[in-house]
Structures are given as structure tokens and as C-alpha cells.
């Protein structure tokens, strides 16, 4: 039985997520690639991160930008070769950076050899690698009806009819992402071999894509939450009702991860802290940590029934409630992962801070302070460290993300339930391409990303917001991240990494304040989420020796006993001993 309660390298890590298509192009085709990543590793080493989570680099027809894999042991030719990969891994290791791969095994691509075989006939040996069912009947026109009412994540039914064999296959995501049948032991063996293949190559772990939906509810019953025409996804239903996920996670871990010194993090939407402890508790043999999504739903309006495709301003008190609950429930029981954004989410400053020029960096620093001050392993998404913002392309035809395109087609073209402007404004707020515009390296043509026109438009603000500018200026957001990362490494480790968490003033709707307690004293973290000046006082400031470790303003007031004034988006970390 594992005992993960002590010190571990993956608890002390700071992870940087790379989404390769938009990171760095090396060969002038407008598409980011592996040699491009290798060339930027010194930049990442300089920032101080020590683990990379690499979004998929495997062979893929790119229906869902690499999350639809057609060969788990091959590199996508657009990204380079296996030699390029080996070179990147070696260079990363020589710089003290580990690499996590993205394990996408809830589904494969429909262009994977297994699926091509499976769909060829009902008695093919690979048929049972996927989930096939008969029609539930026929409609008035005699057309076959799907086996149940499940909705896919990207709109429309979760079933696709296959004429050749007169059955339907299940796809919780796009129709080019058929779900693998984990009930079949041969499928699990294949997956174990793939994992071992990469671990034997020397990679340092995995981020497991959509891993809590691998077990489907017994008998595949209808999902009572599906509302026709509402773009309803049945993923939460599958998560709530699947029964075997822990059994299979345990098996996967014992057959693969457990035999290596590697790190694992599972992507788990619709999952609360108690369930997280079942997956990643210190004495379970499943995963090291999970990504939960509770704070990602704060700016959606449940009343619309539209999930992420709705908008309401988030409330700080709600954010605190969620994050504080995770901090306190996991403390001493399981390890958490900390993130504000990734390749599926809007840009951080635009979403939870302010992307107005005067506040963009200040609010970015403030948000970074809140996250990196918490217990858990922090993740930085490419471009976050320079404060990249959301983008607003003029037309839907400028967008590449199938989720956004399907949403627009469904709402505007097929059902006229939204005006084009309404749909575009939701895509501006929530669309995944916000995170997928090329990394802004410099003010040069194509932002230093490529010598050619990039595969997706650049954010036009790259002439002001770019890495060359940020690394060259001592008070930039980039340097602030560097400082936050280095704080975790030094003598503060016991407090900042391992210290326990104490929330303060839950009802304060403007300031996020909390303490960390550990050997050697405590930390007080303060963050003003508004553009107002605020007066506050904190007991801890009146106890013992108070030292300001970090702040996002250059000058500091003298502390007047326990009281202080927090300027717009001001953040501070005090050490009290
Ligand atoms: C995960 C990925 C997302 C992808 C989906 C299907 O949520 O992060 O990008 O579309 O799984 O693989
Ligand atoms: Ca390229």
C-alpha cells in the first residue's frame, strides 16, 4: 500500500503546461513543433519550473487538436519525429525539467487502427474495443434512433450510427473520438503497454485526460438531465453513475505507474473533494492528484441549462468557498493541484482579473500570488507568465476549436436559438481558442512564434504583450512568477509547499486572505480582487516578527499595528515568526 503522506518531488514541483501547436514553430510552417519546444527549454529553466505537462504530441487527425489519437506510439508528423522527441526529453532532463505526457485513453481517434478494424464488421477481433449498441427503435420516417438519450460534450448525441454494421458507437466527445471499452481486459492491457512504452523511454509521468468517465453506468440508462436543444453533455451523469473507475485506476497504477518514480494527475470534471480523496488520498494506490473544475464554473449561469456556454460575473465569496473547501478537505489526506487556466479555459487575467492595460500585470500578479500561496502543486499555462489575454476574432470562420464551432453552428445556424452576436460574445468569454493563440515571444512579425503565418490568428496585442518585453523588465509579471516559483524552493518550502491552510474572513467579498501554518511560523497571504483601495486589519500582523516576503507594488506603507491599506489588485505575502 502506498504511503504518499511525506515529502515527494511532485509535491514540490511547479508544472508548466505546453500546448505544442501554439508554443513555438521551428521550421516555418506556422505550426508549433517539438524542436521549437526544445529551443525554448532554457527560457522555461530560467523561469524556474521543473516539470512540463505536454499536451498530446501523438499521431492524430486533429479533429480535437491532438486529443483524438490515431497511434499512441508515434509522434504527429507536423510536430516532428521520435528523434526530435528523444532530443527534447534529453535536453529537458539535462536542465532539471521532467516531462509529463498526456494520456488520452477514454477514447481514441476513429482513425486509429483499432477503430478502423472494429467498424469493419461485428465479429472483428477489435469490435469489442469500443462500445457498440443496437438502435432503440426507429423514428416516424423509419430512421434508426440512438440507444439512449446521452448528449456529447461538444453538442449533439453521444452516439453515432454506423451503416455498415447497423449499430451505434458511443462517443462522449466528438464523433471522431469513439470511447474505448474499458470493460474489455484486452483494452486495458493495450493501455498498460502504451504507458510502459513511454515510461521506459524515460518520461516522468502523465496527465490523464477525462479519466473519470471511463466507467459507464451499468446498462447505459437514459440521462435524466438531458434537455433536447440545450447542448446538454452527459459527462456528469457518467461520472456520477459509473461504478468501476476506482477498480481500473488501481489496476492501471499497479500495472504501470507504481513500478516507476513518476507523477500522475487525473483530469476530473464534476468531482468534489471527497471523491478526490478516493482517487488521490495518501493511502490509495490510484493517482497522485487530480484537477477539479469547481472554480471553472463560477462564471457560468446554471439557470440557463447551457453549461459553460452561459455567462455571469463570478463572485469572490463563491471562489473562496470552493478553493478554501478544497484546501481544508485535502489537507493531510490527499495532494491537490492548483491551476487557473489551461488549453480548454479562457485566459486568466481576462477572466478573473482585469485585462485593462493599467491592471493587467497587477491583477495577474495578484492571482498568481493567491494560487502559488496555496497548498498543492501549481500549474502555469503557456503565456500565463506574460499575462496573455483573451482574443476576439471577428468571425466564427476565424475559429479552429470544434467545441466553439459546433456551439455556433448548433445555436445560430441549425436552431436559431441565439443571435450571431450573442453566440460570438459567449465564444469571446468562454471559447477554447482564447488559450490557443500562439505564444507571444516578441514584437517581431508573427510574434516570434513563426516565420510564416500561424495556423490560427495571433492576438493583435502581441506588440505590447510578449516574452521579450517581459523578461527584459525587472518589475514584469514574468519576473514575479520567477520569484514565486523560487520561494517554493528555498527555506520557505516547509511553509509554502507543506504548510497547512487556514482561511480568513470567508465573507469578505473583496479580499482573499488566508494563512499557511507550519514549522518555522506562518504566512499571511492577502489579495485585493478589486480596483478599489481597501482598509483591512489582520490579527497575525500584530503577532511576533512580521516580514514582507513579496508584493506586487514597488513601495510599501509602514504597517500601522494590524491595519493596512490594500491598493487596487494589491497582493502581499507576509512571513510571521
Ligand atoms: C479533455 C481535454 C480537452 C479535450 C477532451 C477530449 O477535456 O483537456 O482538450 O477536448 O478532453 O479529449
Ligand atoms: Ca512547425
Molecular structure report:
The chain is of the alpha/beta class. It has helices at 9-12, 34-47, 82-94, 113-118, 185-201, 235-241, 245-255, 273-280, 316-330, 348-352, 360-372, 402-414, 420-430, 467-471, 477-489, 493-496; strands at 15-18, 51-54, 58-59, 71-75, 98-103, 132-133, 137-138, 144-145, 159-162, 167-170, 205-208, 263-267, 289-291, 337-338, 377-381, 500-504, 511-518, 521-528, 534-537, 546-551, 563-566, 571-576. The protein folds into 3 domains: 9-106 and 185-399 and 439-477, Glycosidases (TIM Barrel, Alpha-Beta Barrel); 113-170, Oligo-1,6-glucosidase, Domain 2 (Oligo-1,6-glucosidase, domain 2); 500-576, Immunoglobulin-like (Sandwich). The strands form 6 sheets. It has an 8-stranded parallel β-sheet. A 5-stranded antiparallel β-sheet has the order 16-17-18-22-20. The protein has a 3-stranded antiparallel β-sheet with strand order 6-10-9, with no helix packed on it. The longest helix is centred in the middle third of the chain and has 17 residues, at 185-201. It is globular. Residues 64, 67, 104, 173, 209-210, 267, 343-344 line the site of alpha-D-glucopyranose.
Q: Main attributes?
A:
577 residues, alpha/beta, TIM Barrel, Oligo-1,6-glucosidase, domain 2, Immunoglobulin-like, eight-stranded parallel sheet, five-stranded antiparallel sheet, 16 helices, 22 strands, binds alpha-D-glucopyranose
Structural class based on helices, strands and sheet pairing: alpha/beta
Strand element count:
22
What spatial form do the alpha-carbon principal axes imply?
A: globular
The count of domains is 3
Whole-angstrom Rg: 24 Å
Output mean pLDDT: 97
Poorly predicted residue ranges: none
Beginning-to-end CA distance, first to last residue: 37 Å
Portion in beta strands: 15-25%
Please give the CATH class of the largest domain. Answer: Alpha Beta
Amino acid at each position: 500500500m502506498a504511503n504518499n503522506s511525506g515529502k515527494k518531488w511532485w509535491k514540490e514541483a511547479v508544472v508548466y503546461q505546453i500546448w505544442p501547436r501554439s508554443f513555438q514553430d521551428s521550421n516555418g510552417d506556422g505550426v508549433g513543433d517539438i524542436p521549437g519546444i526544445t529551443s525554448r527549454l532554457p527560457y522555461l529553466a530560467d523561469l524556474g519550473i521543473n516539470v512540463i505537462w505536454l499536451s498530446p504530441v501523438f499521431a492524430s487527425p486533429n479533429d480535437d487538436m491532438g486529443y483524438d489519437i490515431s497511434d499512441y506510439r508515434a509522434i504527429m508528423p507536423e510536430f516532428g519525429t521520435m528523434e526530435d522527441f528523444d532530443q527534447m526529453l534529453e535536453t529537458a532532463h539535462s536542465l532539471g525539467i521532467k516531462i509529463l505526457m498526456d494520456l488520452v485513453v477514454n477514447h481514441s481517434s476513429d482513425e486509429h487502427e483499432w477503430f478502423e478494424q472494429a467498424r469493419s464488421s461485428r465479429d472483428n477481433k477489435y469490435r469489442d474495443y469500443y462500445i457498440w449498441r443496437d438502435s432503440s427503435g426507429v423514428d416516424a420516417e423509419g430512421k434508426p434512433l440512438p440507444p439512449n438519450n446521452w448528449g456529447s460534450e461538444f453538442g449533439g448525441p453521444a452516439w453515432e450510427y454506423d451503416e455498415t454494421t447497423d449499430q451505434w458507437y458511443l462517443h462522449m466527445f466528438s464523433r471522431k473520438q469513439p470511447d474505448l471499452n474499458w470493460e474489455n481486459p484486452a483494452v486495458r492491457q493495450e493501455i498498460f503497454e502504451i504507458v510502459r512504452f513511454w515510461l521506459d523511454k524515460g518520461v516522468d509521468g502523465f496527465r490523464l485526460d477525462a479519466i473519470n468517465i471511463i466507467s459507464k453506468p451499468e446498462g447505459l440508462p437514459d440521462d435524466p438531465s438531458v434537455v433536447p436543444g440545450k447542448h446538454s453533455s452527459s459527462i456528469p451523469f457518467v461520472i456520477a453513475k459509473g461504478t468501476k473507475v476506482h477498480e481500473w485506476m488501481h489496476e492501471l497504477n499497479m500495472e504501470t505507474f507504481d513500478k516507476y518514480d513518476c507523477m500522475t494527475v487525473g483530469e476530473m470534471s464534476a468531482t468534489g473533494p471527497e471523491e478526490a480523496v478516493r482517487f488521490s488520498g495518501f493511502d490509495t494506490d490510484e493517482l497522485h492528484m487530480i484537477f477539479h473544475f469547481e472554480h471553472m464554473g463560477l462564471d457560468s449561469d446554471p439557470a440557463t441549462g447551457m453549461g459553460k456556454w452561459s455567462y455571469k460575473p463570478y463572485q469572490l465569496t463563491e471562489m473562496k468557498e470552493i478553493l478554501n473547501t478544497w484546501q481544508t478537505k485535502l489537507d493531510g489526506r490527499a495532494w491537490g493541484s492548483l491551476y487557473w487556466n489551461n488549453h480548454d479555459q479562457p485566459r486568466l487575467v481576462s477572466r478573473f482579473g482585469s485585462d485593462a492595460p493599467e491592471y493587467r500585470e497587477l491583477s495577474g500578479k495578484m492571482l498568481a500570488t493567491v494560487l502559488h500561496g496555496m497548498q498543492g502543486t501549481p500549474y502555469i499555462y503557456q503565456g500565463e507568465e506574460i499575462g496573455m489575454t483573451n482574443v476576439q476574432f471577428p468571425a466564427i470562420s476565424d475559429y479552429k476549436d470544434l467545441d466553439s464551432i459546433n456551439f455556433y453552428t448548433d445555436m445560430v445556424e441549425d436552431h436559431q436559438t441565439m443571435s450571431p452576436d450573442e453566440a460570438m460574445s459567449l465564444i469571446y468569454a468562454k471559447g477554447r481558442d482564447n488559450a490557443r493563440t500562439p505564444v507571444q515571444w516578441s514584437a517581431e512579425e508573427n510574434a516570434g512564434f513563426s516565420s510564416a503565418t500561424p495556423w490560427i490568428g495571433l492576438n493583435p496585442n502581441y506588440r505590447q504583450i510578449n516574452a521579450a518585453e517581459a523578461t527584459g523588465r525587472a518589475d514584469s509579471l514574468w519576473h514575479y512568477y520567477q520569484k514565486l516559483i523560487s520561494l517554493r524552493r528555498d527555506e520557505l518550502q516547509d511553509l509554502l509547499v507543506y504548510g497547512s491552510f487556514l482561511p480568513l474572513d470567508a465573507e469578505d467579498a473583496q479580499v482573499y486572505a488566508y494563512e499557511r501554518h507550519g514549522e518555522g511560523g506562518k504566512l499571511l497571504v492577502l489579495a485585493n480582487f478589486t480596483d478599489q483601495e481597501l482598509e483591512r486589519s489582520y490579527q497575525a500582523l500584530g503577532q511576533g516578527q512580521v516580514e514582507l516576503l513579496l508584493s506586487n507594488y514597488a513601495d510599501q506603507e509602514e504597517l500601522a499595528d494590524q491595519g493596512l491599506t490594500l491598493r487596487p489588485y494589491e497582493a502581499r505575502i507576509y512571513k510571521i515568526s
